[in-house]
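Q: What would this complex look like in 3D?
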Amino acid sequence: MQVRGLHVRLGGAVILAGVDLTVAPGEWVTVIGPNGAGKSTLLRAVGGLLPAPGAVSLFGTPSGALRRRERARVVATVAQSPVVPAGMSVFDYVLLGRTPYIAPLGRESAADLAVVHDVLDRLDLTGFHGRELATLSGGERQRVFLARALAQGATLLLLDEPTSALDIGHQQEVLELVDQLRRTHGLTVLATMHDLSVAGEYADRMVLLADGRVVAAGPPDQVLTEELLSRHYRARVRVVPGDHGPLVVPSRPGPPRH
Amino acid sequence: MRSTPAPAGTRDASRPARVTGTPRPAGLRKRWLAAGVLAVLVALVAGVSLGPVSLPPGSVAAELLNLLPGVRLDSGLTEREIAIVTELRLPRVVLGLLVGGMLALAGGCYQGVFRNPLADPYLLGVAAGAGFAVTAVITLGGVGAGGALTGMPVTIPLAAFVGSLGAVALTYLLGAAGGRDRSPATLILAGVAVSAFLAAGQTYLLQRHSDSIQQVYSWLLGRLGTAGWGDVRLILPYFVLTTVVVLLHRRELDVLSVGDDEASGLGLHPQRSRYLLIAAASLGTAAAVSASGLIGFVGIIVPHTVRLLAGSSHRVILPLSLLFGAAFLALTDVVARTAAAPAEIPIGVVTALLGGPFFVLVLRTARRVFP
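A: Here is my prediction, written as structure tokens for the whole assembly.
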């Protein structure tokens, strides 16, 4: 996946001002940056939800040259807070992921149903198939959202704040699951995240976005530095080494409390 | 989590899935389809049997079967009674079935397209457009027998049809003025604006021509009374077209329920689907309104009942709304013409009397159905 010189203006404001980004097959890249930096917009442009003429190419093909259904077979997005349709069962929701393979106005084939069964099985969701999506807990729902994206059969997975609504245990569970799927399915992952320590533990590379530009890119220990984070987040942080990457700890200004 | 999964999501699922239970996609279950067809048949026989001259339902059923090619049963009805069945009551009941089915189908479609439980087929100005146009031709032209207008080359049904579609077109144009970011909400607001504008025009005309008020209101409150086979033939093509287009898109409406962004990500053109469905539903509604006037609540009552009882997928809601909407209106018409016989209660009044209390029920459950 390649992005070259991506400019996006929305409502007269410049959201992205010449973003370059390359994600290699099988790689996990996480985009970080303060609120309003353009992270979600970048993901939307890569996912084809915003016009980005000539700027995005997917597996060697300009994104604009792909028909919507073709693009849906190579890129799957899990939005920050996906709409939960009232009354829809887990099975039917995951089946929506097969839409790019079902003929317009047609109905799902036995093969589509088999894929859904398979994905539910892999994500330990088989027991949930008849449950209404709206009745699941946050962590369970996030697994179902991932299952829907997997059912799409796409190799590029775009995750917009996949763990923002989850407690720390479910965050780890979901991210471990994504990492496992990436390794076993050869998925490429492009994610946005706010929790910098967690982001650094899972990403191969990180991209720091600020004011619509890439201001730093590289392995987590090169991007998660006290100097870069305090400058672009305007936050006081301490960065300490961890087993899987640097850990970012917020540090309140002023004298220590005793 | 299983430790060695093989690639999933491929077109041909190479590995057989381990299935516990038998999950099936949401779809129309046979017993519900059978119930819907039965409701239509009951409404058909009841609608033809009941009236000033009550006919035995068994004989009526036999006479209706005689209309099928190759069937010859002795119904025991006299020539006059057969004429009552085939020339007077049957066209009225069939028109009721078509209009009821159309309004309920269009209502279910609108609720899905706009993701709004209170959307009804008149949302985008159909009612106000028809009301204004009919008021204009009645007050400015004068109407002769059978709805033919004296001194004007249009009839009331034509005025209603053109007025409805004109209003929806205006709503489209206003909604589209919002540019690329136009949302379903923009269209609804445009519909509100157009409806208010046309209602104001209608009120002005009525005030200026108060002698026509009764005539206008008798149309506005809806009627199936003057129905003949001509009315049925007139709306049948629109009924077929709308039904085919909407039912073919029933799965797409389920995809649209996850929002435009996700639907786009799944390969759909949400805007295109939405406009096509709105156009089809509006065309069918305009045809229904031109034949029967304004009949409220069917488009809300029926889809919500179906949703509550049979499931929330549009694969269930749309076909069942068509069947139960048809049966509901045909049966309501029986009430309208027998409850205060020999006088007829306007059918729109009956549907609204039933619809008011039902609306409360919908509002109480809407949070569960549409969080």
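A: To summarize the key features: Chain A touches chain B through 66 residues (CB under 8 Å). The longest strand of chain A covers residues 13-22.
Q: Very helpful, thank you.
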